[in-house]
Amino acid sequence: MLSKLELKVPPVVVVLAMASLMWIAAASTPDLTRVFGAGHLVAAVLDCFGLLISYLGVTSFRRSRTTVNPLKPQTATTLVTSGIYQRTRNPMYLGFLIVLLGWGVLLSNVIAFIFLPLFIFYMNRFQIHPEERALATLFGKEFAFYRSKVRRWL
Question: What is the predicted pLDDT for the residue at 129?
Fold first, then answer.
């Protein structure tokens, strides 16, 4: 049953769903909101940084002329290991996580941050693992070597 969710929901939709859940949780528990002075600035910096990391991932894929479609990793034509991919195997998802962190800071609610590990779990289980199986099939030893040298998230 759970495997039916693999590669079915576009990651952007997952981010929007998590952001919505974070907002609902924060609105439902106002007593757990702790606003601090630089919250808006910190949130903006995190969001900009997250968007930059995701953008670098997308542009690396486009430069290498391989698919950016996260629902069809089996159509990849190139294993991208340069640029941001020297630091993280999943810069687009890492960037999304950082954007959600910025959203959590903006919401300033303790409960909102519970959704960050849920996002990581979901992405690992239903997006990244299936992608990595496809890349292992397509690129074999080259992907195994890359995977041994570069972390999944950071």
Answer: 97
SS3 state at 109: strand
Q: How many CB atoms lie within 10 A of CB 30?
A: 8
Query: What does the alpha-carbon distance between residue 85 and residue 128 come to, in Å, rounded to a whole number?
Result: 14
Token pair belonging to 89: 């195997």
pLDDT per position as a tens digit, 116-142 = 999 999 999 999 999 999 999 999 999
Per-residue model confidence (pLDDT) at position 4: 87
Q: What is the largest CA-CA distance in the chain?
A: 52
Q: How far is CA 112 from CA 6, 81, 102, 128, 137, in A?
A: 25, 34, 11, 23, 37
